[in-house]
TrEMBL record:
Keywords of this entry: Membrane, Repeat, Signal, TPR repeat, Transmembrane, Transmembrane helix
Residues covered by the Secretion system C-terminal sorting domain: 436-501
Transmembrane regions: 31-48
A Pfam family that the UniProt record links to this protein: Por_Secre_tail
PANTHER family per the UniProt record, alphabetical: TETRATRICOPEPTIDE REPEAT PROTEIN 6, UDP-N-ACETYLGLUCOSAMINE--PEPTIDE N-ACETYLGLUCOSAMINYLTRANSFERASE SPINDLY-RELATED
Placement of TPR repeats on the sequence: 216-249
The UniProt record lists the keyword Transmembrane: yes
Taxonomic superkingdom: Bacteria
Organism: Flavobacterium aquicola
The protein's name in its UniProt record: Putative secreted protein (Por secretion system target)
């Protein structure tokens, strides 16, 4: 949501991609087949997040709705892949030949169920793409149009130069912007595989002085894709790999902080990384945007407003270099922050403008409901909360129920409450957390009612790298290698899970 992406392609991967394009002997179609095989193997490793029903592998959003379905035969070769919108409904549908290449009529649908894009493939080769309509809002139209046009251009060029990795990178970047998720993933996985192969051969890697920078860019883009399907662990792991692979590139630190803030809701950890960006570039508009959102969630309203005001100083960049489609935009965040600071008139002005820019903004509707509820206008508050629900707020933001707000504002219209945690609407600042995080030698658990409890630390492959009993809420981690881990604690049936980053 807050990721800073560049679409000036000539500045990204130029040196490495151009050299690889001329020197590699690996055929593009073979790479695509390899990447599809890799993806199938990866998907099967997501067993904790998936349900394998015969030959259909399913992954799910946190709200319980299906995110992705992979249909394959008993020979484990693809038949088709479907992706879904987080609010429900089919998003993409692709079919495959027996040799795992896209084939036939493939489709993309809007969240309203309208046929948006069709592709015709023949044995992995794109024959035709048709955009029945284009999606953009009042702020990102120019950037969206550029990416639609760039896909048309690069597809034409790739027909005569199919192994040009520079063109594939350019197309992949536009595909990810337009949320052509499966096609973007295939392109980026192919680029990732190629660069990792070269990096693993010292005699080859020395020829490409920018290979770490270019590989880090690909990790970052893959993280963005996996965030869309709410595979948080993989998304954060890839963002952390990007930071570790190219530690001098501040954008990767920004993207890691943004993912932690907007996707995984690890606000304290997000603030840590985003403040690293701010320490180097105080007026960084993307970092201030993400920080503003994180501070708002932590109920630090003045800090939230201050950060958003800094982000506003170059607002246009958010739409030129970012995705520009977030509901949690500058005006939405500042609108609630201003209201909580007693500047309600200014807050209402911001929220009205946010809805003018995007009348489907479920977050702005929720915040308008909060404002009206605080002002004592229950009827208007009820209308805004109900509108937010109709726009899928609770499906998009799985841990933020509107139930208690609707119960209070709508009174007799309240539906039955079933989730006690949602009823309470516990503030993120009051939830259990660990610190310091990132950790070097130990972590301490806060806002947890027990001092001595069992813990287990697992790596991204699910392997336990540490377990035992905490000593006065403290867990030693000094012997664990650097990287991302999942820390689980439990006592008397009260279990909590945290993302632990070891320095």
């Amino acid at each position: 949501m807050f990721k800073h992406t560049r679409f000036t392609h000539k500045h990204l991967l130029n040196n490495t991609i151009n050299l690889i394009s001329h020197q590699t002997k690996m055929d593009y179609k073979k790479l695509i087949t390899y990447c599809l095989f890799f993806f199938l193997i990866f998907s099967k490793s997501m067993i904790a997040q998936s349900k394998n029903n015969g030959r259909v592998l399913k992954t799910f959003f946190k709200n319980g709705l299906i995110a992705k379905e992979i249909y394959s035969g008993i020979d484990e070769k693809y038949d088709s892949i479907k992706t879904y919108h987080i609010t429900g409904g089919l998003d993409e549908r692709f079919y495959f030949t027996m040799n795992n290449r896209i084939d036939g009529l493939c489709e993309k649908f809007s969240s309203e169920g309208k046929l948006q894009t069709t592709w015709i493939f023949k044995n992995g080769v794109l024959i035709n793409r048709t955009d029945n309509f284009k999606e953009f809002n009042a702020k990102n139209k120019e950037t969206a149009e550029y990416n639609y046009d760039n896909i048309v251009k690069t597809n034409l060029q790739l027909k005569t130069d199919p192994n040009n990795l520079g063109l594939i990178w350019s197309r992949a970047s536009s595909r990810i912007y337009l949320k052509d998720n499966i096609l973007a993933e295939m392109d980026f996985l192919m680029l990732k595989s190629q660069l990792e192969i070269i990096k693993s051969i010292p005699s080859e890697a020395i020829k490409y002085p920018r290979i770490n920078q270019d590989l880090a860019e690909i990790y970052s883009r893959l993280a963005s894709l996996y965030s869309r399907f709410e595979n948080d662990n993989l998304a954060v792991d890839y963002q952390l790999k990007a930071v570790q692979t190219d530690p001098d590139e501040i954008r990767h630190v920004l993207n890691l902080g943004g993912t932690l803030a907007s996707e995984t809701h690890e606000y304290r950890l997000a603030i840590y990384y985003l403040n690293q960006v701010i320490s180097k570039v105080p007026n960084h508009n993307f970092a201030n945007w993400a920080l503003g959102a994180a501070y708002l969630e932590m109920e630090q309203y003045q800090k939230a407003a201050d950060c958003i005001n800094l982000a506003f100083e170059n607002e246009a960049n958010l739409y030129i270099y970012g995705y520009g489609t977030s509901e949690n935009d500058l005006r939405t965040i500042r609108g609630l922050a201003y209201h909580k600071l007693g500047k309600t008139a200014l807050g209402i002005k911001d929220l009205k403008e946010a809805l003018r820019i995007n009348d489907k903004n479920s977050v702005a509707n929720k915040y308008f409901g909060i404002v009206n509820d605080d002002l004592g206008d229950s009827q208007k508050a009820c209308e805004y909360f109900q509108k937010s629900r109709e726009l899928g707020y609770e499906k998009k933001y799985y841990n933020k129920s509107l139930e208690s707000y609707i119960k209070k504002a709508c009174k007799e219209n309240a539906s039955k409450i079933t989730d006690s945690k949602s009823i309470l609407n516990i503030s993120p600042k009051d939830l259990p957390y660990i610190g310091p995080n990132p950790a070097e030698n130990f972590v301490e658990v806060f806002n947890y009612p027990y001092s001595n409890f069992s813990y287990d630390i697992n790596d991204m492959g699910g392997k336990s790298v540490g377990h035992g009993i905490a000593n006065n809420k403290t867990i030693q981690v000094s012997g664990i290698p650097s990287g991302l881990y999942i820390l689980t604690i439990e006592k008397e049936g009260k279990q909590e899970t945290f993302k632990l980053i070891k320095k």
